[in-house]
């Protein structure tokens, strides 16, 4: 069992948990993820690592309940435990594994959308600890969905917050902020955009226009997370990659977001859900935790 | 008097009934039937059957005990050679191993060795007979990676010799392919697999789940920091292969691994488990091996009409004869000498059909089998809503890419000596699918057994 040392609600629907998992904490790096399973009947749910403490042997996960299984996760309290918790899975961010001197030369821009702020945070923190200050844009629909603001402020070079409805920070989508920053004379050698698929798609369209190479983190349907099931295959350029072993981070300009989103849309739209119900009976309830199907 | 040339028939669930449930197909012998079948054994002095068994079970000896009604003694004899008899009795390809060599088989049907082994193992389990841990421990730590057939066998054998063995399993449940791959109706999980895993634990073996070697820790760390003096890699063949044809990324296309893992490991067929699975109406399974049969028969039980698409003819089907026979009885449709060209998708990127081409057999290829070639102009389409690709797997590079000095071949398989399991790295042994590519449970067990023996020799002389 993997004990939850601290469970807290960050906003009305985003949760944070510090989980005891010494083997994961000893070996993980930013960009990697874990798979958690609550009990015998539960699904295996992939979640990106938000923070880790090697000394304490703990991993911090942050999630937004988007299906039956993550709804159940949200009911766990401090002192409860996950039956299974495995990782670190996937490859670390290249920024943490490439030659540090080369990385230091890069002007970096992170773009985080909603709960995607959680996987961006450890990367920015790691870079900060290694003497690199990156600019960070955090975008969310509304003020209530902004998370980790203080933590991010402590490690980012410049932090730009924007909300779609203008309730906090700048007003408008992250793509607008990217364009504004560049118009203001900022130059970036690389962008790392993590958030909902639609945000990553438009961030990539914007950075392509601005000629900024861009990395995105894909979070497709997954079962085992070790390369065994092939469910997480993603079209990257002409190649088929498995997000769990080849990713989760890929060159965003090579991802066919329309194909990737079609797969997710099956779970997301009413039409898609109705179709699924027709085709697959009652077996799909959005419980996979990946698609946001029933929210 | 029964016909001595024929096997005592084994009771099975009727095809129509079993096609709608996940209960075990074969019901096995009772004691009376087992004793009668055992009496067909000629008790050969130079037993060919033993030569055909990858773990060299003393077959005539255990069968003799069954004939006499001494089932406990029969179990003891089998246990000397095999840690997983209830599993082997169910999933070994006996027709090409022990039973394939049986002298009875020359002029009639071979003795039903597999069914007898199964009976003995089931009887022992039902009567609470368990292997016991050795009294003396030698205090030497050995790590086993993977809790599938090779890992469990290697760990069991080493524990019997007194070693302190820990198995590291990547998934949340022990058993490897026995739990994620082979379906319930062929190999019951809680009744059989879990019990045999318990038996291995009863020998003193520890199992740590949720540890991915190469990620959660590495072989070098296990040896340098955690005090393991030798390591056996039985990590299996993990990565599913795809054909690379158009439409393969559509919704409704699965690898057999995904489909079976959802169903078997995650128990998606049960309402009380959360993991979803596709319930297709019309399913095409591409491939002709045991895994293809398992996927097809699972889809059938979930309510689909199922077609097996296989590019060679029936004679070349790699699956066990019994599985093909059962699949046919249950109503699986075999589209033989047929190969997919394209998966057809609708406007929502869902599978709506599959375009196939007829094949004929040409000259033998490297595998010795006649190579299938397309018949020009023979393409046709069938409507399906689900496609399951069962084309085999290749080893997962997680371990080989993170272990210093461990050599692999061009197929990414770990290079290990066939006799000893020795790899290029001192103290590290390997066997099973990680070495051979996808093969059978019993061959993996044989490799685990051989490695246990050489690990013992290595550590004794260290």
From TrEMBL, chain A:
Pfam families: DHODB_Fe-S_bind (PF10418), NAD_binding_1 (PF00175)
SUPFAM superfamilies the record matches: Ferredoxin reductase-like, C-terminal NADP-linked domain (SSF52343), Riboflavin synthase domain-like (SSF63380)
Any GO MF annotation of the entry: metal ion binding
Ranges of residues in domain FAD-binding FR-type: 1-95
CDD domains registered for this protein in UniProt: DHOD_e_trans_like1
Record note on cofactor: Binds 1 FAD per subunit. Binds 1 [2Fe-2S] cluster per subunit.
Keyword Iron carried by entry: yes
Residue sites binding [2Fe-2S] cluster per the record: 229, 232, 244
Keyword DNA-binding attributed: no
Keywords: 2Fe-2S, FAD, Flavoprotein, Iron, Iron-sulfur, Metal-binding
UniProt: FAD binding residues: 62-64
Cofactor(s) of this protein: FAD; [2Fe-2S] cluster
InterPro entries hit by this protein: Cyt_c3_hydrogenase_gsu, Dihydroorotate_DH_Fe-S-bd, FAD-bd_FR_type, FNR_nucleotide-bd, OxRdtase_FAD/NAD-bd, PyrK_electron_transfer, Riboflavin_synthase-like_b-brl
A GO BP entry: pyrimidine nucleotide biosynthetic process
Protein name: Sulfide/dihydroorotate dehydrogenase-like FAD/NAD-binding protein
Species this protein is from: Fusicatenibacter faecihominis
From TrEMBL, chain B:
Alphabetized InterPro entries for the sequence: 4Fe4S_Fe-S-bd (IPR017896), DPD_II (IPR028261), FAD/NAD-bd_sf (IPR036188), FAD/NAD-binding_dom (IPR023753), Helical_ferredxn (IPR009051), SudA-like (IPR006004)
Entry's EC annotation: 1.4.1.13
Pfam families to which the protein is assigned, alphabetical: Fer4_20 (PF14691), Pyr_redox_2 (PF07992)
Keywords associated with the record: Oxidoreductase
Naturally occurring in which organism (per UniProt): Fusicatenibacter faecihominis
Protein name: NADPH-dependent glutamate synthase
Molecular function terms from GO: glutamate synthase (NADPH) activity; iron-sulfur cluster binding
PANTHER family to which the protein is assigned, alphabetical: GLUTAMATE SYNTHASE [NADPH] SMALL CHAIN, GLUTAMATE SYNTHASE [NADPH] SMALL CHAIN-RELATED
Domain 4Fe-4S ferredoxin-type: 31-62
């Amino acid at each position: 069992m993997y004990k939850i040392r601290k469970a807290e609600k960050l906003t009305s629907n985003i949760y944070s948990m510090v989980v005891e998992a010494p083997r994961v904490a000893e070996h993980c790096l930013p960009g990697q993820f874990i798979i958690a399973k609550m009990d015998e009947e539960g699904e295996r749910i992939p979640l990106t690592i938000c923070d880790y403490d090697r000394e304490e042997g703990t991993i911090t996960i942050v999630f937004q309940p988007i299906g039956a299984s993550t709804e159940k996760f949200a009911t766990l309290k401090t002192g409860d435990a996950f039956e299974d918790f495995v990782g670190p899975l996937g490859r670390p961010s290249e920024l943490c594994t490439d030659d540090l001197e080369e990385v230091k030369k890069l002007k970096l821009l992170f773009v985080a959308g909603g709960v995607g702020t959680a996987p961006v945070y450890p990367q920015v923190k790691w870079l900060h600890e290694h003497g690199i200050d990156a600019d960070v844009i955090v975008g969310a629909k509304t003020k209530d969905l902004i998370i980790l603001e203080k933590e991010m402020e402590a490690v980012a070079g410049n932090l730009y917050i924007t909300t779609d409805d203008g309730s906090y920070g700048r007003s408008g989508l992250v793509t607008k902020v990217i364009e504004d920053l560049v118009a203001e004379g900022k130059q970036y050698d690389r962008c790392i955009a993590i958030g909902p698929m639609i945000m990553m798609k438009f961030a990539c369209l914007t950075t392509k226009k601005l000629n900024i190479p861009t990395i995105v983190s894909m979070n497709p349907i997954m079962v085992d997370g070790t390369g065994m099931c092939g469910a997480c295959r993603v079209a990257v350029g002409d190649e088929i990659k498995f997000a769990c072993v080849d990713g989760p981070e890929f060159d965003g300009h090579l991802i066919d977001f329309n194909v990737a989103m079609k797969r997710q849309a099956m779970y997301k739209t009413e039409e898609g859900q109705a179709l699924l119900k027709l085709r697959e009976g009652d077996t799909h309830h959005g419980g996979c935790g990946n698609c946001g199907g029933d929210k | 008097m029964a016909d001595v040339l024929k096997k005592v028939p084994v009771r099975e669930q009727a095809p129509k009934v079993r096609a709608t449930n996940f209960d075990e197909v074969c019901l096995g012998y009772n004691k009376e039937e087992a004793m009668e079948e055992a009496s067909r054994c000629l008790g050969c002095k130079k037993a060919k059957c033993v030569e055909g068994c990858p773990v060299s079970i003393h077959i005539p000896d255990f069968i003799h005990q069954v004939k006499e009604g001494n089932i406990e003694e029969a179990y003891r004899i089998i246990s000397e050679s095999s840690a997983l008899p209830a599993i082997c009795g169910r999933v070994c390809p006996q027709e090409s191993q022990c039973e394939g060599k049986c002298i009875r088989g020359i002029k009639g049907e071979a003795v039903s060795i597999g069914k007898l082994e199964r009976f003995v193992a089931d009887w022992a389990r039902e009567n609470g007979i368990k292997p016991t841990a050795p009294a003396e421990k030698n205090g030497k730590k050995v790590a086993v990676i993977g809790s599938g057939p090779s890992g469990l066998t290697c760990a069991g054998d080493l524990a019997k010799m007194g070693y302190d063995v820990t198995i590291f399993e990547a998934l949340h449940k022990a058993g490897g392919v026995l739990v994620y791959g082979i379906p319930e109706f062929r190999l019951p999980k809680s009744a059989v697999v879990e019990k045999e895993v318990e038996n291995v634990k009863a020998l003193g073996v520890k199992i740590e789940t949720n540890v991915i070697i190469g990620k959660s820790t590495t072989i070098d760390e296990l040896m340098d920091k955690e005090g393991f003096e030798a390591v056996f890699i039985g990590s299996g063949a993990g990565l599913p292969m795809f054909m690379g044809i158009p439409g393969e990324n559509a919704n409704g296309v699965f690898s057999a691994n995904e489909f079976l893992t959802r169903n078997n490991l995650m128990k998606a067929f049960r309402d009380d488990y959360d993991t979803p699975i596709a319930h297709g109406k019309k399913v095409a399974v591409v491939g002709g091996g045991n895994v293809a049969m398992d996927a097809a028969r699972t889809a059938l039980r979930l309510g689909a009409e199922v077609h097996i698409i296989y590019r060679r003819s029936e004679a070349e089907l790699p699956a066990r004869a019994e599985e093909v026979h059962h699949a046919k009885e249950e109503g699986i449709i075999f589209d033989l000498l047929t190969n997919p060209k394209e998966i057809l998708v609708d406007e929502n990127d869902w599978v709506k059909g599959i375009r196939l081409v007829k094949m004929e057999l040409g000259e033998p290829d490297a595998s010795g089998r006649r190579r299938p070639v397309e018949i020009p102009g023979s393409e046709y389409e069938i409507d399906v809503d689900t496609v399951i690709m069962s084309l085999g797997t290749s080893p997962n590079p997680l371990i080989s890419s993170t272990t210093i000095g461990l050599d692999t071949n061009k197929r990414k398989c770990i290079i290990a000596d066939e006799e000893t399991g020795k790899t290029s790295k001192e103290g590290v042994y390997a066997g099973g699918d990680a070495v051979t590519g996808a093969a059978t449970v019993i061959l993996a067990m044989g490799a685990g057994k051989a490695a246990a023996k050489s690990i013992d020799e290595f550590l004794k002389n260290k």
